[in-house]
């Protein structure tokens, strides 16, 4: 393998002209023969059994070129860009120029990382919130706990009201014909939840449970309904109302706490633990927000022209992550787009801003790593392996086998770059919020503010005047 020529193209694109010949290409031809021989007929031989020289004599050596190129060009390309210190951000566009039995020449055109010029990244200032926890927030957590431990109970026979949970059978028809998805039995539905199409829940209100007396309701599917054959159509649903139920929430006392927890025995102790957890959450959120604000200042001040392909590849990653989340809920991206009535092009646009932000942040942190000469020791690498092993419940050596050391070290280095920015930064307290009473008073508070401003001005003027008089006396 040899680099014949490299040429800087527009932007961050580079063209490499590379020659593959000699032993490397001979190995590629041997591999190509092994792959292709089973499908090639040579008179007098079973498929795959004809010697290589007879295959070449029968079909010509060109029959082996495609597979030989696939086998050899990736390693040649990787060797060249590594030797040149070039960092690609996309796959190369490969064009074969000359090829014969002795080897071939190809051009690889690829986009690289752009040059980055940082502005100030030390000694910055950003707001950092204090993690104060209100009693109402603890109450909300307790209420959520009550919801999770509630149980469904029957209530007296009476007409259905808003907020009731009803148990129904239904059978829907359009034009007298049943349709797919329009029939269910013992369906649980909370009235007023908006779970069903408009008009459905409202027409159940006022009815009393009686399985022997079904009733009909008429609704219209909204325009643009995901099932196109139902969009805008009128439907009649026959409803059988079996029962009305409600969620009964437990009383929060010491006995309830003992039932749900092995660690706490009193409401007071449990609330203290909730407060501790909320404070930790808020502290983590405040730290992330502080870091984001600082890194935002760093990226705002840096000079860089980001290749569009870098943002596109980041969008690809985010879309793939979204697909994985959907699959956990039994959905595909195609199903989601259909339900959301969205085209893939528009869906991808939703990720554009965050993708660009991520790319800018990564470039900035990588540049800080270079400027600060940040290197990762074996001890730091092993410490990260221990963390990952604990996180995933696996042996450290198993994690070591699975991870890409270079990629993991790069992540550790960028985290240290974040520390460079945050450790030198100054924390600014949030602006004091105006008291609720003053905010509601409107004109009164405005007058007070104006009065306060006016009272400050004479003091400043007086101070300035005193200073002037002092200077005169010195003269």
From TrEMBL:
Which BP terms from GO are recorded?
'de novo' cotranslational protein folding; protein transport; protein unfolding
Q: Which Pfam families match?
A: FKBP_C, Trigger_C, Trigger_N
EC number(s) recorded for this UniProt protein: 5.2.1.8
Among its keywords, does the record have Ubl conjugation?
no
Gene3D superfamilies in alphabetical order: 3.10.50.40, Trigger factor ribosome-binding domain (3.30.70.1050), Trigger factor, C-terminal domain (1.10.3120.10)
Q: Which SUPFAM superfamilies match?
A: FKBP-like (SSF54534), Triger factor/SurA peptide-binding domain-like (SSF109998), Trigger factor ribosome-binding domain (SSF102735)
Q: Which residues form the PPIase FKBP-type domain?
A: 163-245
Q: Which UniProt keywords apply?
A: Chaperone, Isomerase, Rotamase
Gene Ontology molecular function, alphabetical = peptidyl-prolyl cis-trans isomerase activity; protein folding chaperone; ribosome binding
What is this enzyme's catalytic activity, as reactions? [protein]-peptidylproline (omega=180) = [protein]-peptidylproline (omega=0)
Bias type Basic and acidic residues, positions: 466-475
Q: Looking at the record, which segments are called Disordered?
A: 420-475
Could you tell me where the Acidic residues compositional bias lies? 441-453
Hey, which family's this protein in? Belongs to the FKBP-type PPIase family. Tig subfamily.
PANTHER family this protein is in?
TRIGGER FACTOR CHAPERONE AND PEPTIDYL-PROLYL CIS/TRANS ISOMERASE, TRIGGER FACTOR-LIKE PROTEIN TIG, CHLOROPLASTIC
What is the name of the protein in this document? peptidylprolyl isomerase
Q: Which organism is it from?
A: bioreactor metagenome
- Lineage, uppermost ranks: unclassified sequences, metagenomes, ecological metagenomes
């Amino acid at each position: 393998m040899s680099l014949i020529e490299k040429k800087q193209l527009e932007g961050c694109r580079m063209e490499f002209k590379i020659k593959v010949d000699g032993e490397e290409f001979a190995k590629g031809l041997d591999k190509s023969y092994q792959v292709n021989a089973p499908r090639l007929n040579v008179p007098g031989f079973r498929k795959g059994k004809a010697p290589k020289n007879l295959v070449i004599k029968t079909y010509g050596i060109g029959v082996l070129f495609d597979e030989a190129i696939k086998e050899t060009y990736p390693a040649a390309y990787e060797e060249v860009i590594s030797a040149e210190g070039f960092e690609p951000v996309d796959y190369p566009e490969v064009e074969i120029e000359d090829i014969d039995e002795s080897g071939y020449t190809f051009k690889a055109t690829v986009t690289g990382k752009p040059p980055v010029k940082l502005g100030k990244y030390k000694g910055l200032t950003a707001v950092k919130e204090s993690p104060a926890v209100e009693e109402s927030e603890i109450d909300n957590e307790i209420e959520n706990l009550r919801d999770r431990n509630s149980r469904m109970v029957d209530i007296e026979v009476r007409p259905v009201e808003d907020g009731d949970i009803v148990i129904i059978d239904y059978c829907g028809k359009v034009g007298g014909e049943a349709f797919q998805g329009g029939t269910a039995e013992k369906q649980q539905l909370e009235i007023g939840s908006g779970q069903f199409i408009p008009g459905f829940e409202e027409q159940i209100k006022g009815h009393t449970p009686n399985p022997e007396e079904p009733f009909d309701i008429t609704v219209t599917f909204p325009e643009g309904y995901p099932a196109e054959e139902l969009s805008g159509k009128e439907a009649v649903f026959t409803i059988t109302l079996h029962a009305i139920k409600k969620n009964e929430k437990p009383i929060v006392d010491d006995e309830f706490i003992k039932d749900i927890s092995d660690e706490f025995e009193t409401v007071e102790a449990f609330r203290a633990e909730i407060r501790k957890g909320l404070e930790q959450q808020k502290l983590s959120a405040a730290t992330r927000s502080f870091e984001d604000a600082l890194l935002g200042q760093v990226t705002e001040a840096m000079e860089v022209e980001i290749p569009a392909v870098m943002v596109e590849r980041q969008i690809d990653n985010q879309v793939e992550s979204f697909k994985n989340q959907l699959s956990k809920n039994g959905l595909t991206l195609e199903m989601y787009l259909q339900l959301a009535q969205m085209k893939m092009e528009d869906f991808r646009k939703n990720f554009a801003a965050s993708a660009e932000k991520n790319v800018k942040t990564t470039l900035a942190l990588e540049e800080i790593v270079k400027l600060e000469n940040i290197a990762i020791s074996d001890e730091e690498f092993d410490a990260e392996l221990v963390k990952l092993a604990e996180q995933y419940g696996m042996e450290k050596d198993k994690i070591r086998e699975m991870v890409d050391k270079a990629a993991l070290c790069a992540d550790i280095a960028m985290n240290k770059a974040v520390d460079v920015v945050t450790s030198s930064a100054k924390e600014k307290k949030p602006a004091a919020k105006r008291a609720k009473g003053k905010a509601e008073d409107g004109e009164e508070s405005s007058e007070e503010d104006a009065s306060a401003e006016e009272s400050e001005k004479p003091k400043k003027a007086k101070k300035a005047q005193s200073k002037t008089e002092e200077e005169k006396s010195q003269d």
